[in-house]
Amino acid sequence: MAGHSQFKNIMYRKGGQDAKRAKLFTKLAREITVSCKVGSPDPDANPRLRAAIAAAKQASMPKDNIERAMARATASSDGADLEELRYEGYGPGQVAVIVECLSDNRNRTAAEVRAAFNKHGGTMGETNSVAFNFERVGLIRYPAEAGDADAMLEAAIEAGADDVVSDDSGHDIYCQPDDLNAVREALTAARGEPETARLDWRPNSTVPVDEATAQTLLKFLDVLDDNDDVQRVAANYEIADDVLQKLSA
Question: In the UniProt record, which is one GO cellular component term (predicted)?
Answer without folding.
Answer: cytosol
